[in-house]
Design goal:
- The structure holds two protein chains of two kinds.
- By secondary structure, chain A is mainly alpha-helical.
- Chain A is built from 13 helices and two strands.
- Helices cover 48% and strands 4% of the residues of chain A.
- Chain A has a two-stranded antiparallel sheet.
- In chain B, 25% of the residues lie in helices and 28% in strands.
- The longest helix of chain B has 21 residues.
- Chain B is elongated.
- Chain B starts with a helix and ends in a 20-residue tail after the last strand.
- The chains are: A mainly alpha, B alpha+beta.
- Chains A and B meet through α1, α4, α5 and β2 of A and α1 and α3 of B.
């Protein structure tokens, strides 16, 4: 009997990632709601001192300058932000920006809106609206945002980005604390997500910009075996970040979020063709 | 060496959720600044029994949502106001070097939240929270602490 390397016909995505996305979204939402309730005299005491700032690793980036120069944190930033930032970086050095692909609630909600867009427009049209040349230029804009946030925060010693931060707006829109600008940015992102997958991550996220740099030297990376690869390029069509996986043998693109969707059965029908591994020739 | 998605997910869950849980159990969610402010002004963060405090100081920074003050004891304090749109809507625009009198309380985050700020040069009072500590901006009802 002829042995085949084809996967069974039942197509499976990366279910573990979907579970973690829901888990972390629910956890952060719960903590944010509880924070409001505690300030009203209710809520759960064991979560009383937790706020979104305490759980945001990007807060660790924002406070770095003040921590190095004055030995203190920016107001609202806790030691936990720096601890989480360290853990996120350790994971990124090993596996790439898994924070973006597996944890970040703002990334998750864009992806969920994106599913509606994909259903509405179809896989071939969705996520391919922006002309390739313009898209490749816009993808560097997030480094500009990162540079501005770092400079403005260091110069003012305050959380300047909070006024524009869609992540803060997402979990504070009911409190009145979120700035109108941040709410408008969040709304724009959600609407854009119906046409383009993860628009904030691709073009504007300062934390994604920083973590994306680890793609250049991370230990585990996406590898494609050209000898078993068949035409179809589903890995490139389904990649949320539009990385042409089918044209790479090793993916070191600065936009990869390590979602591993290109390695899934839903994406590549041939076993051991697109894998997540360490070592071997580049 | 290959890694599958289930193993990667388990590692991520253990590292990040473990980090959050460990940070919480070791008290790293609490602000250093907040604790400092509590000690300086006698408030008790997180117990719902805040006391109202009035202090005078000189503005050394304003970031649209908060004031950095230097108090008479030469201490640096951050005063949490309201969201920028509210602060601007009530015409609050202090200048660096201006003297102010702030009445407020230490909230559950350990931050000093302003109820009123008086600009000493003009005597104009700007209100941010009511006597119950509740924010005065639209949608902010119930957002304050309980002085």
């Amino acid at each position: 009997m002829k042995q085949t390397n084809r996967r069974p016909s039942r197509k499976r995505g990366i279910w573990m990632r979907k579970v973690l996305q829901v888990f972390f979204f629910a956890l952060i939402a719960l903590i944010s709601v509880n924070h409001t309730l505690v300030q009203n005299g209710g809520g759960w005491d064991f979560l009383a001192s937790a706020s979104l700032h305490a759980l945001c690793p990007f807060g660790g980036v924002e406070t770095t300058y003040q921590l190095l120069t004055a030995g203190t944190f920016l107001h609202k930033i806790r030691a936990s932000s720096v601890i989480l930032l360290s853990l996120v970086f350790i994971l990124a050095f090993l596996f790439g920006p898994v924070f973006c692909g597996w944890i970040c609630p703002l990334g998750s909600i864009q992806e969920w809106y994106g599913k509606l867009g994909r259903k509405w427009l179809g896989s071939k049209r969705y996520n391919h609206f922006i002309p390739a040349k313009l898209d490749s230029i816009l993808r560097y804009a997030r480094y500009g945002v990162l540079a501005w946030v770092l400079y403005a925060t260091a110069a003012s010693a305050t959380l300047v980005f909070q006024e524009y931060d869609p992540y803060f707006a997402l979990f504070h829109f009911w409190t009145g604390e979120a700035a109108t600008t941040a709410l408008l940015i969040l709304l724009t992102i959600l609407l854009m997500s119906l046409l383009v997958e993860r628009p904030w991550c691709k073009y504007a996220c300062p934390f994604g910009a920083l973590l994306g740099l680890t793609n250049l030297f991370r230990v585990f990376t996406i590898r494609r075996r050209a000898e078993t690869c068949r035409p179809g390029h589903a890995c490139a069509t389904l990649c949320p970040m539009n990385i042409p996986v089918s044209q790479r043998t090793v993916v070191r693109d600065h936009q990869c979020i390590s979602c591993l969707e290109c390695t899934s059965e839903a994406c590549c029908p041939i076993r051991e063709t697109v894998v997540f591994s360490a070592g071997g020739a580049e | 060496m290959k890694l599958n998605s289930t193993t990667l997910g388990t590692i991520i869950l253990l590292v990040i959720f473990g980090g959050i849980a460990a940070s919480a159990s070791m008290g790293f969610w609490q602000t250093e600044g907040g604790e400092h402010q509590n000690r300086a002004h006698g408030g008790e963060a997180g117990d719902g029994s805040h006391t109202t405090v009035t202090l005078r100081g000189i503005v050394n920074g304003y970031d649209l949502s908060g004031l950095s003050l230097t108090t008479g004891e030469n201490q640096s304090l951050y005063i949490q106001l309201g969201p920028s749109h509210y602060n601007q809507s009530i015409g609050f625009a202090p200048q660096v070097g201006e003297g102010v009198t702030v009445t407020g309380f230490i909230d559950h985050d350990g931050l000093f939240s302003a109820m009123t700020v008086i600009l000493n040069s003009t005597g104009v009072t700007h209100s941010f929270r009511d006597a119950g500590g509740h924010p005065l901006w639209p949608g902010g009802n119930g957002n304050g602490g309980h002085p």
